[in-house]
Amino acid sequence: MLRSPALVNAKTPDVSVGTEDAFYPCGRRAAHRVLGLLLVVNLINYVDRQILYALLPSIQNDLALSDAQAGSLASAFMVVYMLAAAPIGYIADRWGRPFWISLGIGLWSLATAASGLARGFAQLFAARAAVGIGESCYGAISPSFVAEHFPPRQRGRVMAVFSMAIPVGSALGYVAGGALGQAWGWRNAFYMVGLPGLALMLLSLRLREPARPASDTAKTDNLSAWASYLGLFRIPSYLYVTLAGAAMTFSLGGFAVWMPSFFHRQWGLSIGQAGTLFGAITVVSGVLGSLAGGWLSDWALRWTSRSYFLVSGVGYVIGLPLAVAALLAPSLTLASAAIFLSELFLFLNMGPINAVIVAVTPPGSRSMAFAANILVIHALGDAVSPALIGAASDRWGLTTALMGASLALALAAAFCFLGLRRYDEDAGKAGHA
Fold first, then answer.
1. Contact 92, 367 (CB under 8 A)
2. Residue 253 scores a pLDDT above 90
């Protein structure tokens, strides 16, 4: 069996295919069960998160909200989501992750359903902020929890499958939001997608923590929360991958909120048509892009240990001009084709970016690593971009506002290429375990 440079540099043992099961801490079958359950949970996670955006035109009409107010609903979720992630990640790395995963699922499901009870802007704002608390419990913990059930050589593909829930769940949110909102009203749409998550909460109560070396836990236990988080940002590869994620999230987070409205306004589509179109584009491009990125980055490990950064950076470079072309296209057909191709390349990073975080951080700090990543990428990304795009749209128009937001993808590419230089050293220090 070929040994990739990444695995050699990380001092991963060389084993035959027949003994590869030894690399599964809880066994191969258990690993795939965990992946399957948390993939489904992650799908519901993004459905509950994104459904708001397909319903925005109806909500704005019913509650008389401006574009700036509508954008701030997304910011309310993201601000709470990113701030809650840091303390939760610190506690979970010390007290165990399964409890927090289950708690998060229950909290965000109830808060999503409660969004349908809102009678004004303030109440809806509070409900969406509460969704952020629940999802922070899950988002900060689940990626590392899933990754640690699999051997290092498979993590690009595993994280791609797990992260595939982002485009698929988002697309389902747009489609479900558009269809349910048009047929039953936006309030009933929130009820219908929120409450089923409680069943998944009950299933997640059976999750068990995979074994970790005692030395890893001892190292983190001896550090304060501040010192532990500060130490993560002293890892160059982690810093670069986090900044790249922030720049990407600024652009894609803004697009996620405003593209259905763009199709509605620019091309005269109904609310249902706009949500369905953008949802279909996102789910197909997201599935293909995510799986291709995970497979391609793991395959390229045979020749370069830095393939996770390389695949992500190239995807950003190609996706940026295609995003601009979609906004300037002279017809709906060309606009749809361009945004499909743009998202296809931009979603190449879904698995590789998460695999970088797992590879360059110590096992006992990985929930914290994802929590800090969440804090930074959303603080600098989609916690602010929806509201900024909304304010810019009120002044200059939605097309111009979205074009400005897409330029952040150039920064994402630059940070990925900077991260290429330090990945081998950082992965070796972390043990790539």
1. yes
2. no
List, in order, residues 6 or more apart from 263 with CB less than 8 Å away. 269, 273, 274, 277, 278, 332, 335
Distance of CA 282 to the CA centre of its chain: 14
Write down the residue that tokens 């220090």 correspond to.
429
The residue type of 169 is G
pLDDT band at 224 (very low <50, low <70, confident <90, very high): low
Task: List all residues 6 or more positions away from 121 whose beta carbon is below 8 Å from its beta carbon.
Answer: 63, 65, 69
Q: Distance from CA of residue 233 to its chain's centroid? A: 20
Q: What are phi and psi of 204, to 5 degrees?
A: -70, -15
Q: Over range 361-389, report the average pLDDT.
A: 83
Over residues 199-222, the mean pLDDT reads 68
Place of tokens 């994402």: 412
Residue type at position 20: E
Angle made by CA atoms 298, 304, 306, in degrees to the nearest 5: 80
Distance CA 237, CA 348 (A): 18
3-state secondary structure at position 160: helix
Instruction: Answer whether 285's CB lies under 8 Å from 164's CB.
Output: no
Task: Please provide the distance, in angstroms rounded to a whole number, between the alpha carbons at the two ends of the chain.
Answer: 19
Rounded CA gap, 129 and 106, in Å?
Answer: 15
Rounded to whole angstroms, the Cα distance separating 316 from 268 reads 30
Residue-wise burial string across 39-62, b where 16 or more C-beta atoms lie within 10 A, e elsewhere: bebbbbbbbbbbbbbbbbbbbbee
CA-to-CA distance for 306 and 286, rounded, in angstroms?
Answer: 23
